[in-house]
Design goal:
Elements: H1 9-12, H2 17-32, E1 40-41, H3 43-50, H4 54-67, E2 70-73, E3 77-80, H5 88-95, H6 100-110, E4 117-119, H7 120-127, H8 131-144, E5 147-149, E6 154-157, H9 164-183, H10 191-211, H11 214-231, H12 235-247, H13 249-254, H14 260-277, H15 281-309
Antiparallel strand pairs: 1-3, 2-3, 4-6, 5-6
Helix pairs in contact: 2-4, 3-4, 9-15, 10-11, 10-14, 11-12, 14-15
Length: about 300
């Protein structure tokens, strides 16, 4: 069964924001684990891995089946039609951020054109979109953590890392907490999770930095740092790393065209994982500190270029 090369708008509109996020995470999971054609994708396993109920997982799996990368057996569930490495064309649009209203709102937020608080009526007039379509976009933005609903039909944009100063502050903060977490007495890594992270980062090094979408690259980077923070078994470190990732999401998407740095970062991630596996936590912490400092310098240059273009 052949898969379509793009996701028609009519199919994309079938998914709720939650189902869309789950579908993306399923794709990331399948690619990260290098699943092969014919393998079974148990719904329970996926729901537990993603941390959601089975209902959105079932909807996402059916959607992927319609795209031709999965096949549903009435009695046994869902199976891969093709190897994960051959999914790119079929799921490209599913993973993209090509919704024009979403992109325009993101641009306007980054350029500080929109006020902090807006109403749905204001946004409908500004972008010429129906309320039903706008609410899907706002729901997606809410899922991503940069807007929240206020009273009535009002919405409030949450703070973002969207200036050179805030960008530098965020990286300096991370240089304090992430290496320290690796050296903590409570740090303990999970071998299966480490192997999964290594496979995903190796895929980026092997060419994924060019073929993966901005969302996939950002999520892979976030997953690496959040997993290591989770291994530290300190809830405050984990909450801090997760929150910073939410705050920097939009700017990271816009900088996705600078892809060579993604390969460098993934190589550095692999070196950190090697040190952790050898239980050389001093080296791992040193590599993490160097990695974050290099990322800080590179991101500041990119952010400065973006600011000058805005």
């Amino acid at each position: 069964m052949s898969a379509p090369d793009a996701l028609p708008d009519s199919l994309a509109s079938e998914l709720t924001p939650l189902q869309l996020r789950v579908a993306r995470e399923i794709v990331a999971l399948v690619r990260r684990e290098g699943r092969r054609g014919g393998e079974h994708l148990p719904e329970v396993h996926i729901a537990q891995h993603i941390g959601t109920s089975r209902s959105p997982v079932q909807a996402a799996l059916r959607h992927l089946s319609r795209l031709g990368v999965l096949q549903q057996d009435a009695n046994r569930g869902f199976f891969l039609v093709k190897d994960a490495k051959d999914w790119d064309g079929a799921v490209a649009s599913l993973l993209s951020t090509d919704d024009p209203v979403y992109l325009q709102i993101a641009d306007d937020v980054l350029q500080k054109i929109l006020p902090e608080e807006v109403t749905e009526a204001d946004l409908m007039r500004r972008y010429g979109v129906a309320r039903s379509s706008l609410r899907k976009v706002l729901s997606r933005i809410s899922e991503e953590g940069w807007i929240e609903q206020s009273m009535g039909h009002g919405w409030r944009f949450l703070p973002l890392i969207d200036s050179l100063k805030s960008y530098e502050e965020s990286y300096l903060f991370r240089q304090f907490i992430e290496p320290g977490s690796l050296l903590g007495a409570t740090f303990s890594f999970q071998p299966a999770e480490l192997a999964s992270l290594r496979a995903e980062q190796q895929r980026i090094v092997n060419g994924g930095f060019e073929s993966m979408t901005a969302i996939e690259l950002f999520e892979a980077n976030s997953r690496f740092h959040e997993t290591l923070a989770e291994w530290g078994n300190n809830r405050f470190v984990l909450q801090s790393v997760r929150r910073i990732n939410q705050l920097r999401r939009l700017v990271e998407y816009r900088q996705a065209s600078v892809r060579g740095t993604r390969r460098t970062q993934a190589s550095e991630h692999l070196a950190i994982l090697d040190a952790i596996e050898k239980l050389d936590m001093v080296q791992a912490a040193g590599l993490m500190r160097t990695h974050l400092d290099g990322a800080r310098r590179g991101k500041l240059k990119q952010a400065e270029a973006f600011t000058s273009e805005a």
